[in-house]
Amino acid sequence: MWYSWVSQLRLHHKSINYPVCTQSTLLSMNDVIYLIIGILILGTVSYDLIYTTFSPRGAGFVSRSVSTVIWRSLFWLSRLFKYSKMLNGAGIIIVVSILLSWVMMLWIGNAFIFLSDTDAVVNSTTKVPAGLVERIYFTGYNLSTMGNGDYMAGTDGWRIYTAFISFSGLIMITIGVTYMVPVLSAITSRRALSIRITSIGQSPQLMLLNNWNGSDFKQLESHFENLAQPVAEQGQSHLAYPVLHFFHHTDKEAALLPNLAALDEAITILLLFVPEDKRPANNVIIPLRQAITTFLGSLTVLYLDPSSVQEPSLNIKKLQESDIPLEKPDTYKIEKLNKRRRILKAMLDYDGWEWDEVSAPAFDPKMDLPEMV
């Protein structure tokens, strides 16, 4: 009985037509994988390019990653060889690298899609399906033009897709290049703002001493009123174009970050040590202070860790020596501002500056009379 049942089961097993895993089946599975990879790469680069160029708040994952890796590599090399001027070229290197990353991802993603079908690309004369290298060549050629005719799409559907990538690829590359125009404009404005801040004073204490009229600091009001708007504009520019953070200048008069830190420190000294009746009016100080706060908010792209930085010491020695009436600061106010000052120090550390350099001379003393520099 058991023998008869097993025999029938074997006969039934042999009669079932199981699917056979043939070479064509494996190729079709590979084709699907190529198609999925291509779509994922194109989706990633399209989102990154569009978000980076059109979003008013920051950069996409690819742009941010490229910027961070290149900056940290150059920063490490500048420390290794003790040559800080190496960082001067970081900004342009990062900009070019981002553009190349976008172009290469567009190229690679479309190449994978053309690999997903044997008939996607054929020789225009023999109609023989193109190989790997030919498909990569065909893809790259069509991203900027319609090709030169030695290879062509094999079917109507692929011909339409070829026209699409030629059109969209040219648009995306143009958008990427156009993105750099406001970046270069913002760099010029950034340098001008830095020089403007430095002209008030080359250190926090000098900014105050240069504007002490013998009884108060009201002379600073005109400076602060004129600085609030350009500082706010720079904050928004750095938020929209985070690559601006990586344009480093070793010349202090053109380096915005140490001079902006000096300006903020001067305001902090005013708020902590100077009696309210001797400061500039609050309706002048507050807009400038808030503009600097907005700028500090754009630093999120730099992955700063203020908690790992110790707040710098407050230096008012020159003010004390000048017999300017100062008051003892409130401990609560000092503690309240510690986080802000740690962020400023972390910002300078990331950009390759030391906190002591905030008070360093900016202009060349050989270029003018001592009282002019």
UniProtKB/TrEMBL annotation:
<keyword id="KW-1133">Transmembrane helix</keyword>
<feature type="transmembrane region" description="Helical">
    <location>
        <begin position="32"/>
        <end position="52"/>
    </location>
</feature>
<keyword id="KW-0406">Ion transport</keyword>
<keyword id="KW-0812">Transmembrane</keyword>
<protein>
    <submittedName>
        <fullName>Two pore domain potassium channel family protein</fullName>
    </submittedName>
</protein>
<feature type="transmembrane region" description="Helical">
    <location>
        <begin position="89"/>
        <end position="115"/>
    </location>
</feature>
<keyword id="KW-0813">Transport</keyword>
<feature type="transmembrane region" description="Helical">
    <location>
        <begin position="160"/>
        <end position="187"/>
    </location>
</feature>
<keyword id="KW-0407">Ion channel</keyword>
<keyword id="KW-0472">Membrane</keyword>
<dbReference type="GO" id="GO:0034220">
    <property type="term" value="P:monoatomic ion transmembrane transport"/>
</dbReference>
